[in-house]
Amino acid sequence: MSPTTPPESHPATGSIGRLRSCSLHGGHHPSEPLSRPRAAQPVEPADDHEDLLPAPAHPWEFPLYAVCVGLTLALAAVALHLLWTVTGSPLWTLAPVPALLAACWVARGLRYARHRAESVKVSPTQFPETHCLVVSLSEAMGLARPPEAYVSTERRPRHTDASAHGLRRYLVLSHDVFHAGEHERDPEALAFLVAHQIGHVAAGHTGYWRRVATLGAELLPGAGAALSRVQEYTADNHAHAHLPEAAHAVRLLVGGRHLYRRVNMGEMADRTRTDRGGSLLLYHLLARRPGNARRMAALRDRSRRGRVFL
Known about the structure:
By secondary structure, this protein is mainly alpha-helical. It has 13 helices and 4 strands.
């Protein structure tokens, strides 16, 4: 794909049709006053099931998840045995278990509270295009309730993210990603990355008990990181299943909102065949996200499942 040529246009069908409907009905025209925001018009569900496409998990996800759960249980058993050996008391041996569960719950709650207190919430009257997009993609992926969406206002924004607390699921969009979608009039750039995060929710990656069950693997270098990389590929599968024409938007993670249009996705993907080295291999084994070149290669060639290790 040429870095400067826009993607070929196709008929507006399935989720792409909903995306364009959100853009057409929910946008703000520069001549309209900002003091009276209007909500995006609801998008009618499609008559067929064209947009309810299968989004298979990466083949390594379940095996790695099972390994991470096994490591967590093994580490927990060793820790409890040591406590029993030292204290000899059932109470002091088991007391850290509810304490750890409570600490994880509080930490997730504080993270959610920080976004509620500091970030801008996407709503029907505040950034209606993005709200319409979140609702439409959530419906297409079979979620009973769309997750909340927040735009991070931090000076150095992190990647877009998906998380949860209790029964609430939420997305956090960096302002770089949001700026490209809303202000530079490139809705596909925003849509694919939003679909990726909703894919995490649809795949169950944000659940509390899933995080707790794999907590022990995070203490072992490479174990928790491998599962995290696989989950990123699975979320990409969800996004690609619903917005295949927007996969080029992953360039935004590489070039930022100012340079992403000049990034050659094909050239970056081809580097995965030639770039070699011990330091590069170690980096890929320890990183929590797939390298951008590897991720682009998996999105560009759907016969490739996404490299996790070598």
